[in-house]
């Protein structure tokens, strides 16, 4: 498959390698700008503008993508390891923090490449007109995308629309309403110039180039963000009121573009070839026993815009021996440390209550992954009344019983890959919570619970308080573990860690179901940091939810429910599809229903949506996006879209680590000090309020 991932761009001011005839053939060129006057050089310049999207996924201890979008939100907090304390909204979140500078620089380098490309597009007279229009559309989309990211996080920022080919210091920040106007202007022109991707997701024969679907999705998000200015006008701190330049037609335009991309309702017949993957799990293609993605990354019509990586180090901007530079590092970031996990039940203060030993038979390999655990899910993600609580389903069922996304988004089972040194034999057990005799379930005392190849760890979302009526939390946990043929980790019943003990192995910041979406067993060595997975920046599943929300805001509840149900039906368990054994063992489901469809229980009605208050509906769609796009680096933007007070409220309710320190001004990030130090004369509006 021809793909943009096979183009490496060392930089606008370095060497660009590309080929307009075949993306798999590379040629080297020097930095003589006359090269861009040729069709081949211009094509290379266009492709290079995609390059800066990669910067958010590598090259630092914790890639800026998860720092800016996931860590420190209501769904993800700091993990048991790594330097992410500024996600606690402490003084570490300051203009001198290198993360903010790197993120800013990546975005503006992308803008610079797009601006240079647009200059040479205008002067080119030899490229075929249809191809020239498409390449111009790509550049306009990419410039709009980079400014979208900047506007979300920084608000006011310099608006640079021409190439800068000489030293320039007099940058001033433009009001964010001007940034949003430019984003929408660029994306609208891109929409008019770009074709639809074909049924395989390719544009002009290449998978990875943006098409009309990407532009429509960006326009939907931008118009929705601008429309939601209405929620930002009366903040508790008036200095956090926002002027995004909203217009009276923002909501209608969001519906227009989303409907066209989804080929839904008034957009039916748009020509869009984008469709949902039939199975949510097929997007991630990872088997906890055999690895993945298998047979390779999903590359199909659900993807509207992806940041691409390659299994060839050369195309990831690496030399073969530099396996810890470049590539996609997210496979380590949302990953628990399953290897060497001690079989210890703690009382919550670091003191052992029950210990079976220090090695349960899981060693680090390409499938268990390298568990950097830079971020961990907040309890909101798995609590009974949290993200998958019954309040989100018209059937009033718990999401864990009917919504497959909970299980298909995470790794719930690990298998022993070496002989355990810990005592994993069956034993009778008694404490204040109860008594267990292994012979009661047909097991022989002293026989091994498992051997190499068997299940060694199982995570669940069970709350043991509902199973055992007496005993302390740790006593209930120890008793439950004595009953299982593996090490059992029920997330609602292990230690709720605090900042000071976040590294304990039996606590929620260190031990949690790994997000499956970035795991990658194709690396040559277990400790290689550079992964190869593409990052799916825009997916059709998100577009449908945005459309459903916009229709609900418009008062069209029937079409809102119809649009949302398309995503909900995909998320349901299908007739004959086997649910995880958790369904009947821990979640309260009936064994007889293990292969029964949950489609009807997942659907919503117009009445269900219309009965919500406006505030409740904002939270409902926020969390519908959370279920569909968990960990896909969108959460921060959805929280702040509805204003600083909404952002703070969600964090205080759902993220106990962030709650003590988060303030309304944290809705924006600090302008990097490195930028401010180079501006002359000084910008009177140089820094965001609060920093």
From TrEMBL:
Entry's localization field: Cell outer membrane
Classification via Gene3D superfamilies: 1.25.40.390
Keyword Electron transport: no
GO annotations of cellular component type: cell outer membrane
The entry's keywords: Cell outer membrane, Membrane, Signal
Family annotation (InterPro entries): SusD-like_N, SusD_RagB_dom, TPR-like_helical_dom_sf
Ranges of residues in domain RagB/SusD: 421-691
Origin: domain of life: Bacteria
SusD-like N-terminal domain sequence ranges: 22-195
A Pfam cross-reference name: SusD-like_3
Stated family: Belongs to the SusD family.
Protein name per the record: RagB/SusD family nutrient uptake outer membrane protein
Source organism of this protein record: Dysgonomonas mossii
